[in-house]
Write a structure and sequence with these properties.
41% of the residues lie in helices and 20% in strands. The chain has 391 residues and is an alpha/beta fold.
Length: 391
């Protein structure tokens, strides 16, 4: 299969935090003094390895996303060095490449945020999670609501004109009015982007033991009501609900995350990072060692820390394209692009589509398929049923 697109996005995982949140299942380690230079050196060396072995030279760089963990635990100098190394190895797609840095409010100040901007960061994603001190304490966050507000204003003062704010609903003891208060405070800041995520209880986390049977957490009905209320408030405030969990002002969608949902190529660097290249065949992905010490040793010895790889079959690639496409509420599964890749329209490829359409969960404008508002609330069920009927 030919490359459908010659652009690429690069994700860099920084696996270090001040402390580990009890609900977090991401690859991260609490450490007071992370090995910044050594880790950054490894990321840069890994980049060189994949440029040489994966035929990525000549690709046009569209986005860089630095996530974690808490990437803002690293100094602006090291973050800037990583950014310049990445940008220097690809052809820039344009003059305004989106470079996102995830930020925890209590790891930054005005001076540091300004230095990140000088180092090449063009977009910030601030992990506020809540604007209630009680809720923040209940989920083990180390910052206060006041600090989250201050970090946002400092980012604006530092010159950032593209800021995202993350919020979580379904927190221990959270009431619908508490959630609405946080959403309204986020809207009042007028960030360019707001993400809302339901709290997930992951096996292996302290919350998994603490909330067995969901005792102490809002009911599923209450969670659904919180989500619907957020949708209403954000759309009323002018935010476009462009992805299941994401809202943006016009022209301010997350370009990097949109690459994932559009099934485009991305290179993952760092401990636990995943990569996806849409050729040969129906696509291939690989992933790195999750432990940062193991990752650094492997990179220093061999240039790669890859511990797993898989080649997709046609049915797997079709199913993934369906699930990712349906997450895009503004576009859905685009029929023409789907047929160009797989040889058939999505309505011809998923036999359950018609029944789900009759149930009011999917719409089918032209050759495309999109979730209805009812389908958004039951999206996981829709994904499963569509996958069962992949032809």
């Amino acid at each position: 299969m030919e490359i459908r697109d010659d652009t690429i996005g690069v994700y860099v995982h920084i696996p270090y935090c001040i402390s580990k949140c009890p609900y977090c299942n991401f690859s991260s380690a609490a450490i007071s003094s992370p090995p910044e230079k050594r880790y950054s050196d490894c990321v840069i060396k890994e980049l060189s390895f994949y440029l040489e072995t994966e035929g990525l030279n000549g690709r046009r760089l569209e986005t860089v996303y630095i996530g974690g963990g808490t990437p803002s635990i690293f100094s602006p100098e090291e973050i800037g060095r990583v950014i310049s190394s990445i940008k220097g190895r690809f052809i820039p797609l344009g003059n305004d490449i989106e470079v996102t840095l995830e930020v925890n409010p209590d790891t930054v100040d005005l001076k540091k945020l300004a230095a990140y901007a000088r180092g090449g960061v063009t977009r910030l994603s601030i992990g506020a999670q809540s604007f209630s001190d009680v809720e923040l304490e209940s989920i083990g966050r180390t910052h206060s609501a006041r600090r989250a507000l201050d970090a946002f204003h400092e980012a604006r003062e530092a010159g950032s004109r593209n800021i995202g704010v993350d919020l979580i609903f379904g927190l221990p003891g959270q009431r619908e009015k508490d959630w609405e208060s946080s959403v309204r405070k986020a809207i009042g800041l007028r960030p360019e982007h707001i993400s809302v995520y339901g709290l997930t209880i992951e096996e292996g986390t302290p919350f998994f033991s603490a909330f067995k049977g969901r005792a102490g957490l809002p009911s599923e009905e209450a969670e659904a009501a919180m989500y619907e209320r957020a949708i209403y408030l954000l759309q009323e405030a002018g935010y476009i609900h462009y992805e299941i969990s994401n809202f943006a002002l016009p022209g301010k969608t997350s370009v990097h995350n949109s690459r994932y949902w559009a099934d485009k190529d991305y290179l993952g660097l760092g401990a636990s990072a995943h990569s996806y290249i849409s050729r040969p065949g129906w696509g291939r992905r690989w992933w790195n060692a999750p432990d940062p010490r193991e990752y650094m040793r492997a990179i220093e010895n061999a240039g790669t820390a890859r511990v797993g790889e898989e080649k997709l079959r046609r049915e797997e690639a079709m199913t993934e394209a369906m699930m990712l496409g349906l997450r895009r509420l503004d576009k859905g599964i685009e029929g023409r692009a789907f047929k160009e890749r797989f040889g058939s329209l999505p309505k011809e490829s998923f036999k359950r589509w018609e029944a789900l359409h009759k149930d009011g969960l999917l719409n089918g404008p032209n050759d495309d398929i999109v979730l209805t508002p009812k389908g958004v609330l039951l999206s996981n069920e829709v994904f499963l049923k569509m996958a069962e009927g992949c032809l």
